[in-house]
Design goal:
The protein has 16 helices and 13 strands. Helix 12 (292-300) links the parallel strand 11 (286-289) and strand 12. Helix 7 (178-187) packs across helix 12 and helix 9 packs parallel to helix 14 (330-342). The model has no long low-confidence stretch (mean pLDDT 95). It has a seven-stranded parallel sheet with strand order 3-2-1-4-5-6-7, sandwiched between helices. With 380 residues, the protein is an alpha/beta fold. The protein is globular, with a radius of gyration of 20 Å. It has two domains: 6-177 and 358-371, Rossmann fold (3-Layer(aba) Sandwich); 195-351, Glycogen Phosphorylase B (Rossmann fold), CATH 3.40.50.2000.
Length: 380
């Protein structure tokens, strides 16, 4: 008699979680003899994630619909917990998986702990060691790692962090980051840009993509960064086209439009779907970002990244030289970007660095570990 399939429940909340869990959900579905895969969305984000389900062919089995206008992390947590409890009681999976450091992930870890369902943490072991930065993510990922039964560490550095905190070495696997699997998959697909984006890509000799929305930057740092972008837009008015898909959060939209709205070579656009975003990233001379996911995608596509953070839980690209940490002060950001735009050998040297975040086989390693197969670790 064939053994019973292993029942896996994947929980998703925000855009990066869908992107980073998609390769695992696809791999579980492909291995349907050994796995029964279920998907629950909390609905922490809505508009940003719906197109991703279509792109990756994901059909959620449960939707907790927690999103409310102006929601705080406490709102999301308190709305998600009862829903997760009933889904866990209904599904009784062998493992529940969640990726990263959002409130959805923390809620999933807590609900799984209470229901005594084993929890596997994807992208385990990242640490900035500063609860204020990134806020609230550093706290969320620590809670998730406290109760995990499988730690899927993207890099060896993440594994070291986990072992230092007492994780069972037999349950820590260095997998690479699944975002590398996702970006390689999507960048290989034929994707047409809309005529408007296509025109932006050719309007000036160089394209610079910008993303910025971190909660700990709201207020002063966000304004400083916008002023830096304004300085840069003025300095490179005829030669660089900046494209900035602006996150819907009003705390971001307000200052961004007030400071950058009238710059002719800064296109403030709606958040892009993943396919077009990846195509634009590929074509960019560099990307200016405070996003962890974009920092991991950039070296995958050979694009230098200037990172708008004071501290980082993803040091690998800075150590390898594929990215630079620019902070959030106006002058520092201007200098970091100018150096790359003005010194082509420096920019080219960054483009050639090996990708420290993965090799496109992270999902396969995670699925193998869940099945009890031997796993050759990433970078091993
Ligand atoms: N992204 C996207 N469209 C955009 C901006 C970003 O699809 O307009 C993708 C990006 O490629 C990355 C992810 O969204 O994979 C990052 O999401 P976010 O910045 O929300 O999260 P973080 O990485 O900071 O956790």
């Amino acid at each position: 008699m064939a053994p019973k399939p292993i029942r896996i429940l994947s929980v998703l909340g925000t855009r990066p979680e869908v992107i980073k869990m998609a390769p695992i959900i696809t791999a579980l579905a492909a291995d349907h003899r050994r796995f029964e895969s279920r998907v629950c969305v909390t609905g922490q984000h809505r508009a940003l994630v719906e197109p991703l389900f279509a792109l990756f062919g994901i059909r959620p089995d449960h939707d907790l619909a927690v999103m409310r206008p102006g929601q705080t992390p406490t709102d999301v947590l308190s709305a998600a917990l009862p829903g997760l409890q009933s889904v866990l009681r209904h599904e009784r999976p062998d493992w529940v998986l969640a990726e990263g450091d959002t409130t959805t992930v923390m809620a999933t870890a807590i609900a799984a702990f209470h229901e005594r369902v084993p929890f596997g943490h994807v992208e385990a072991g990242l640490r900035s060691r500063d609860f204020a930065r990134p806020f609230p993510e550093e706290f969320n990922r620590r809670v998730a790692d406290l109760v995990a039964g499988w730690w899927f560490a993207p890099t060896d550095g993440a594994r070291t962090n986990l072992l230092r905190e007492g994780a069972d070495p037999a349950r820590v696997v260095v997998t690479g980051n699944t975002v590398v699997d996702a970006v390689l998959d999507v960048s290989a697909r034929p994707a047409a840009l809309s005529p408007a984006l296509e025109a932006l890509g050719t309007r000036r000799p160089r394209l610079v993509l910008v993303t910025m929305h971190r909660r700990e930057s709201f207020g002063g740092p966000l304004e400083q960064i916008c002023l830096a972008l304004a300085d840069l837009a003025d300095a490179y008015r005829d030669v660089v086209q900046f494209v900035y898909p602006v996150h819907p959060n009003p705390a971001v939209r307000g200052p961004v439009h007030a400071i950058l709205g009238d710059r002719e070579n800064v296109a403030l656009v709606e958040p892009l779907e993943y396919g077009p975003f990846v195509q634009l990233l590929r074509r960019s001379a560099l990307v200016i970002t405070d996003s962890g996911g974009v920092l991991e995608e950039a070296p995958t596509l050979g694009v230098p990244a200037v990172v708008l953070r004071e501290v980082t839980e993803r040091p690998e690209a800075f150590l390898s030289g594929a990215a630079v940490l620019a902070g959030t002060a106006r002058e520092g950001v201007v200098q970091a970007v100018r150096r790359l735009l003005d010194d082509e050998p420096v920019r080219r040297a960054m483009m050639g660095k090996p990708n420290p975040y993965g090799d496109g086989k992270a999902a396969a390693r995670i699925v193998a570990a869940l099945a009890g197969d031997p796993v050759e670790p990433f970078g091993g």
